[in-house]
Amino acid sequence: MTSASQSSSTDRVIVLDGVATTPAPVSVPVARADAPEPAAVVAAVEEILRSGQLTNGTHVRELERLTAEYLGVRHCIAVSSCTSGLMLVLRASRLTGDVVIPSFSFAATAHAVVWAGLRPLFADVDPHTLTLSPDAVRRAAGVQTSAILATHTFGTPCDVEHLQGVADQLGLRLFFDAAHAFGSRRGTRAVGGFGDAEVFSLSPTKLLVAGEGGLITTDDDELAERCRIGRDYGNPGDYDCRLVGINGRMSEFHAAVAQASLVTLEPRIARRNQLARRYHRLLAGVPGLAFPVVHPGDRSTFKDLTILVDPVAFGTDAATLAARLRDRGIDTRRYYTPPIHRMAAYRDVAPQPYHLPETEAAAGRVLTLPLWSSMDDQDVDRVVAAVVDIQSGTVLS
Ligand SMILES: *Cc1c(COP(=O)(O)O)cnc(C)c1O
């Protein structure tokens, strides 16, 4: 590894026309954690410390009750992360063989499949919503396939009805990686109640924030019970483990933070939607930019505000746009590139030459712009002005 690649992005030196300069400091970050006000948590932290019950106790139970009520599901099982929740739910479901997943997702979707002893089978996304395509699932599924695990990408609800139809037709279980989607709705129904189970993330940049944590939601009593036991090593209390579980428990402190976060959730989602609409309106006339589609009537959390950059019509590609924005102190990400099937870790796990044209096209074009709940309109305007300026510069040159 070279010393340049070891240094952090903030102290990296850029050589421009032979003159060494440091990049502009980040003045617009890509996201900020929605941490609750300290005052909302202090009393609970004190109570937890005095009680001596530090993990998987009354605060966790109360969080499970409140979130199950909010989502309208029978069971909510709090766990240590979305990744451990996904591992647990796949293991607890007694799956075998292959699980069809999108390659256009965060790596943890596939990691959970592999850690559960299963094989990921990558399928393509719908080019409009960037969520798993039901037709692509049908094409990808084989005789070894036992389940589908779809992601509500960026908070956009999946085509849950058609995915359920394919699952029913092929005799597969259906699960959702709902890491981005706490508060998303498919029509009037909250994400959380679809398929056999869904799993949310409570890590800092997600919607419901615990610091670290996850929630498994399901209406299946037996699956819920196996997940509850499974997060505690598989031990129901008599030390005769019923399944090969893990320590996937949530601590009381994390549950207290998440409870405080739940109180402010609705206004934060409303604000993110407002900011997303502002981006959409102000960028609508810029040539070569497109937005993933949220089905009319559905609600996205806009966990991320990702745009698609057509390099020909826009004048430069998404990677160059990201670099030019960074020069102006505006931080972005490229969710999701590389797609999972192209990651080094998956070369041996998924050696087949995959044909995922929509995934490849999206991965080449995506750019995630700054968005956080307490962002000002002026921050959006600044990002938009920079994008417009870069675009007109590329047309002129
Ligand atoms: C963040 C994320 C995860 C992992 O969540 P953790 O709580 O950090 O384990 C899984 N899937 C997606 C799509 C994510 O964005």
Question: Which labels suit this protein?
Answer:
single chain; alpha/beta; 7-stranded mixed beta sheet; 14 strands; 39% helix; disordered N terminus; binds pyridoxal-5'-phosphate
Describe this structure in words.
- With 397 residues, the chain is of the alpha/beta class.
- Helices cover 39% and strands 15% of the residues.
- The strands form four sheets. Strands 3-11-10-7-6-4-5 form a seven-stranded mixed β-sheet, sandwiched between helices.
- The longest helix has 20 residues, at 377-396.
- It is globular, with a radius of gyration of 22 Å.
- Residues 1-11 have low confidence and may be disordered.
- Residues 81-83, 105-106, 108-109, 151, 177, 179-180, 201, 203, 214 line the site of pyridoxal-5'-phosphate (PLP).
- Pyridoxal-5'-phosphate (PLP) binds next to helix 4 and helix 5.
Named once each, the bound ligands are: pyridoxal-5'-phosphate
What's the order of the H and E elements? Answer: HEEHHEHEHEHEHEEEEEHHHEEHHHEH
Mean pLDDT value: 94
Tell me about the biggest sheet? 7 strands, mixed
In short:
The protein has 397 residues and is an alpha/beta fold.
Topology:
Elements: H1 3-6, E1 14-16, E2 19-21, H2 39-51, H3 58-71, E3 75-79, H4 82-92, E4 98-102, H5 107-115, E5 119-123, H6 134-140, E6 145-151, H7 160-170, E7 173-177, E8 185-186, E9 189-190, E10 197-201, E11 214-218, H8 221-230, H9 252-263, H10 265-283, E12 289-290, E13 305-309, H11 311-314, H12 318-327, H13 357-365, E14 366-369, H14 377-396
Parallel strand pairs: 4-5, 4-6, 6-7, 7-10
Antiparallel strand pairs: 1-2, 3-11, 8-9, 10-11, 12-13, 13-14
Helix pairs in contact: 2-9, 3-9, 4-5, 4-8, 6-7, 10-14
The structure holds pyridoxal-5'-phosphate (PLP).
Residues 81-83, 105-106, 108-109, 151, 177, 179-180, 201, 203, 214 line the site of pyridoxal-5'-phosphate.
